[in-house]
Amino acid sequence: MDLSPEAAKRLDTTDELAAFRDRFVPITDASVIAYLDGNSLGRPLRATAERLQALVAEEWGSRLIRSWEERWLALPEEIGDELGRVALGAAPGQTIVADSTSVCLYKTLRAAVALRPGRDEIVTDTANFPTDRFLVESVAAELGLTLRWIETDPLTGVRPEDVTAATRRRTAAVVLSHVDYRSAAIADLAAITRETHDRGGLVVWDLCHSAGVLPVELDAAGADFAVGCTYKFLNAGPGAPAFLYVNARHHEAFGQPITGWMGAADTFAMAPRYEPAPGIRRALSGTPPVLGMVGVQEGVALLAEAGIDRVRAKAVALGRWVLALADAWLVPLGFTIASPRDDDRRGGHVTLRHPDAERLSRVLIENGVLIDFRRPDGIRIGLSPLTTGFAEVRQAMARVRELAG
């Protein structure tokens, strides 16, 4: 494979998504050579900055409290429906923007367990993201349930056969990540959901590392629940609100544990008792974070314009480019590849392992290559298709070779 600067330039020239890079706020720090951490925090959109200014001056500054009824109260469902359509394969009325991923996970897991009375086990995997593992442990302790662990190799991710072996008639819920946060291994969402359903359990999927970078087909897979963040590939901003999905077949019986006024049937009735709103709105608790939702709305709009299939195609191409550069330049220096080489099994980043990864990560960041370190020895190369270029990646990998050599 041609790894020359000219080859990188050709890849950028033929990139169908290259023009979208101009839609983001420029990086003004001249010391930054490459931003390869968009799978942790996406870059800000120019449109988001403009919308925030307009919101402060007009919707908030001029319309004042009237904006709640005029626009803001409907945003969680409006944005949720568009996110479901553009990125999640979800029909309207099943996705809503709310809270943080942790809170959404707590709500959906508690709801899933409640829908399976008499079952006393929750299943997750040892390689799952810490929030997921911590919350599963917390809910199990809170409800007196047994937690069953799947021992997982992050490189392969959780396989359907692993779930088959771990689930049984006592399984109430399975909690898994669609894309492994370390290796980017993609789990077979449809097959695992099917295997769990065959044993009478429900699945809560964490889509944090898949939403916005690869197509997700929740409805087609018959998924039960899903949660995810919006500040990675959706570029909604630090601390932007998360989303949760509840399949329509569960709506009538769905009950979440944090019952707040925004999830009530009549928000402003100030009723003496809680009565849940119909449909997905019952998943809300407190007042929607309007400022944060602006970033979600703009990120989803840009993704709709770019198209999730084109985004996925570029993520695959960027991954191949990193693998080729790593094989040629870094493997001889003691690096190993810790992500799937199969395009169909790899998400939106590539992880490199190195014995001195922690120190090297600090050196790289100090020298303008912004990457992510993941214990014990992983360096994540984040590939955000709407902002990452091929020449940018080549320059970063050349700097890694220089500093590690």
CATH architecture of the largest domain: 3-Layer(aba) Sandwich
Tally of individual helices: 13
User: How many domains, as an integer?
Assistant: 2
What is the terminal-to-terminal distance? 22 Å
Largest sheet: 7 strands, mixed
Cross-sheet strand order for the largest sheet: 2-8-7-6-5-3-4
Give the overall shape, derived from the CA principal axes.
Answer: globular
CATH fold category name of the largest domain: Aspartate Aminotransferase, domain 2
CATH top level label of the largest domain: Alpha Beta
How many β-strand stretches? 13
Share of helix, binned? 25-40%
The SSE string, one letter per element, is HEHHHEHEHEHEHEHEEHHEEHEEEH
Uncertain ranges: none
Provide a quick synopsis of the model.
Its EC number is 3.7.1.3. The chain has 405 residues and is an alpha/beta fold.
What's the layout of helices and strands?
Layout: H1 5-13, E1 34-35, H2 46-60, H3 66-70, H4 75-88, E2 95-97, H5 101-114, E3 121-125, H6 130-143, E4 146-150, H7 160-166, E5 171-177, H8 189-198, E6 202-206, H9 218-221, E7 225-228, E8 243-246, H10 290-306, H11 308-330, E9 336-337, E10 349-353, H12 357-366, E11 369-370, E12 372-374, E13 378-382, H13 390-404
Helix pairs in contact: 2-10, 4-10, 5-6, 7-8, 11-13
Describe what this molecule looks like in 3D.
The protein is an alpha/beta fold and about 400 residues long. The chain folds into two domains: about 140 residues, Aspartate Aminotransferase, domain 1 (Alpha-Beta Complex), CATH 3.90.1150.10; about 240 residues, 3-Layer(aba) Sandwich (Aspartate Aminotransferase, domain 2). Helix content is about 40%, strand content about 15%. It has 13 helices and 13 strands. The strands form three sheets. A seven-stranded mixed beta sheet has the order 2-8-7-6-5-3-4, with helices on both faces. A four-stranded antiparallel beta sheet has the order 9-10-13-12, covered by helices on one side. α4 runs parallel beside α10, α7 packs parallel to α8 and α11 runs parallel beside α13. The longest helix is centred in the last third of the chain and has 23 residues. The mean pLDDT is about 95. Homodimer. It catalyses: 3-hydroxy-L-kynurenine + H2O = 3-hydroxyanthranilate + L-alanine + H(+); L-kynurenine + H2O = anthranilate + L-alanine + H(+). This is Kynureninase. It is an enzyme of class 3 (hydrolase). One of its GO terms (biological process) is anthranilate metabolic process.
